[in-house]
Amino acid sequence: MSTKNLIFIVLLLFVPVSIAAHFLEWGSVTVFITACLAIIPLAAWMGTATEEIAVLVGPTIGGLLNATFGNATELIIALVALNAGLVEVVKASLTGSIIGNLLLVMGLSMFLGGLRFKEQTFQPVVARSNASAMNLAVIAILLPTAVNYTSQGIEESTMQTLSGWVAVVLILVYGLTLLFSMKTHAYLCDVGEAENESSSEGHSEKPNGLLWTVVLLVCTLLVAIESELLVDSLEEATASLGLTALFTGVILVPIIGNAAEHATAVTVAMKNKMDLSVSVAVGSSLQIALFVAPVLVLAGLILGQPMDLNFNPFELVAVAVAVLIANSVSSDGRSDWLEGTLLLAAYTVLGLAFFFHPVMEAMG
Amino acid sequence: MSTKNLIFIVLLLFVPVSIAAHFLEWGSVTVFITACLAIIPLAAWMGTATEEIAVLVGPTIGGLLNATFGNATELIIALVALNAGLVEVVKASLTGSIIGNLLLVMGLSMFLGGLRFKEQTFQPVVARSNASAMNLAVIAILLPTAVNYTSQGIEESTMQTLSGWVAVVLILVYGLTLLFSMKTHAYLCDVGEAENESSSEGHSEKPNGLLWTVVLLVCTLLVAIESELLVDSLEEATASLGLTALFTGVILVPIIGNAAEHATAVTVAMKNKMDLSVSVAVGSSLQIALFVAPVLVLAGLILGQPMDLNFNPFELVAVAVAVLIANSVSSDGRSDWLEGTLLLAAYTVLGLAFFFHPVMEAMG
Amino acid sequence: MSTKNLIFIVLLLFVPVSIAAHFLEWGSVTVFITACLAIIPLAAWMGTATEEIAVLVGPTIGGLLNATFGNATELIIALVALNAGLVEVVKASLTGSIIGNLLLVMGLSMFLGGLRFKEQTFQPVVARSNASAMNLAVIAILLPTAVNYTSQGIEESTMQTLSGWVAVVLILVYGLTLLFSMKTHAYLCDVGEAENESSSEGHSEKPNGLLWTVVLLVCTLLVAIESELLVDSLEEATASLGLTALFTGVILVPIIGNAAEHATAVTVAMKNKMDLSVSVAVGSSLQIALFVAPVLVLAGLILGQPMDLNFNPFELVAVAVAVLIANSVSSDGRSDWLEGTLLLAAYTVLGLAFFFHPVMEAMG
Q: What is the pTM of this model?
């Protein structure tokens, strides 16, 4: 058994612990931390199960499955938080996921990979094409904020309508990028042994479809339960830890939700498979911006918890800055440890800025 | 006769119709729409006539002619609107022209071209050089807005003076880019059979100078008349259609003024001449920013309708965003249908944002 | 003796003149101008002395010496101004140095070099790597401003703490870039005969360590004295010349402090050594952002003149714009006179904007 799986099994103990902490009222900080830890292995196994099933059902449906469930953990946490009315935390976790994938995940990959290999290379065409899609996504989800910020205020219902239409455009674009990368230009986007690599130990035999479907369902259910615990305890726990809702949403929640991607991207970078590593980090950001965010906007309308795309302006600055520096570092198709350091430093500085950002009364 | 010319001749019927609509008081909406339609063929023929005369007078004077009259339609509409005091509409149409050329025209070209050809290429050196000039232009016309927005207000006369000096710098830079592309580095900027292509059917015989001069004069006169009708009816018509002056200026007016460039850029893209297509779209934006905008600032001083470069901040955001994504898509010298889609999606999202942007009292 | 040295010796006469002007009370304008002129040769000789000593002590310590004392003149002027409480002038001179190096120095180099050579090339890898570091630096020093601007105000003490932490991150990154360029990836960053070129006439014999150490100490002392005169007279002199403190800090002070780099970068560009020229301009900006600015923040805490990283938002715009266009021009590893013109035009437009920017009450 690999070290990774051993760690995951230990972390799995936090599932019963967190539930006990909730019912025995061990305090919101305990519930929050144990729920966070419990989600990490569940998210990882959901990812593995999705990929195993994807192998079984063939490239097209498998690709769609990966594209839809790839960020399932984040989507579940966000839906639970949205349903509980924590709209600002949900928005913050979206920007935080984008920032975290582009700076923390890609930065760690380039840094640790760069310590082993003097120079690493990856396909610049894919990096640039992704950069353009990322630019569009960021522009789209942040324009409503700009509309509000550059006018004498916009009515809430108008903001909802605008956000809804923007969400529709983004989902359409997401569908077209899938069509592009899986059908018309698949050769461009082939980054090699993705499934083999990110699943734990490779598989010469055919995966067991029933087994993995059960794993997927059980993990999804447990993630949903742990998300309830996490969301319930979030406000009280973070307040008693002296953290703002903004910082929690932007920095803490995404690290938990993306732990699996972090592990995969860093592992493959250290095996010098930078194409796959960059693709995981940027692909995950793209999925958040082009799929998770618009789905949440539309879900908000259904749940009666209207979520618009009117972000805190500093989140706008942070995402713009993250995309800018990630593009600048990745556009030439090569990386070294200094480029990784620059991304990590940018993440640190953004983290400091969010930590000290005064809480707005609108938050939380 | 080509389909394009047939359409143009039919549209020409709107010249008398719009004049009738004005004098017989058929309502401002009718006048506005018919004037819009009438301008499209006139603009196209002005373009053709300019190019035919340019062939006749030789490369240097011809190049200057193209560089000066290339956006004549937009310039005439803007001058008429400026004279009528619609300063905010004029500014909006400038930003709208830049956005429209970079996103709508280039996006449609890459999308439709990309449906026919899996991958299209163009000279990245020219694309990058143009991108740098475009960056400068955008920076220059938007800095006065930033000065106003980041201070506790700037006096109107100071803003005028600043805008005037910036205009002078831009016109100088425009002159130098012409010198660069026509004299010192002409080999870099040669995009092939531009005149032949964009004029309708090619010409083995020498063009008839007198004929085309008459066409140019008549079309210019008619464009000026139709612009008067368009500007007179604009405010009432758009209000009764439920559109803001901002949306009209940014989205509607530029589509009419740039219809000819649209047709040319898309046509040549579908013949896989992407160098020319990108050059038309980016070149037209550059001309707006480096020549038309500063000329209008200086004309405003003469007309007693002072026009400064203090834009609505959302226009600033929109232009910055358009330039960013256009650079990101075009800097690698290759395009496919997805890149076209990204540009069109960006245009759509910007259009939605302008549509829902609350009217500022300063507008119209 | 070279023309350059002759000019410097003439300028040296302004050392006694400026001191006389101060004690004989010839007026603050006279003191200010003569002190400015006196600093130019002193700064140049400090640079030469640093490089000669660097040759003597070997590449590693020499590299560190260059990296630390490379912007010594600016650091001294800034420390004196900071000690006198002119915090806003210090901040303005930091942004002005970055802008000046990226636009004025690099622009003049590309323009004058481009007049001699049709096309000049330099290593794009280094240019891009520097661009990424520059992006990080700009992001880091400007995020505190963004925090303040996007909240309902941040307490001064929180801003201090945030700025202090950001300064620590930047100094760490600076150390790592030195490690990268001098140790682990030195081959990437080798731009050739830098020392030989930028020192005046080359040296076949071993430099005289004692002589140059004396020159360094005397020049440092004199720069410090002249900086006192410059800072003392600055406010009164610029006010009577009709200039704002912002304009003085952003445009005038950096031109004086960077005069030596200007001369070096332009001289080597005209010898077609663009790698070195770009490296001097960008390297100097990087040093300001990653080393001088954070050192001043930490020095402010010691001097009891708290200097945070909360800039005038227009400075933020200006630096972002300068980095954008400098990256856009330099990222392809080639330059011509038009690219130089674009940078100079951007500098001119920014200069105009700063000239007309209304003084905020917080300034000076």
A: 0.88
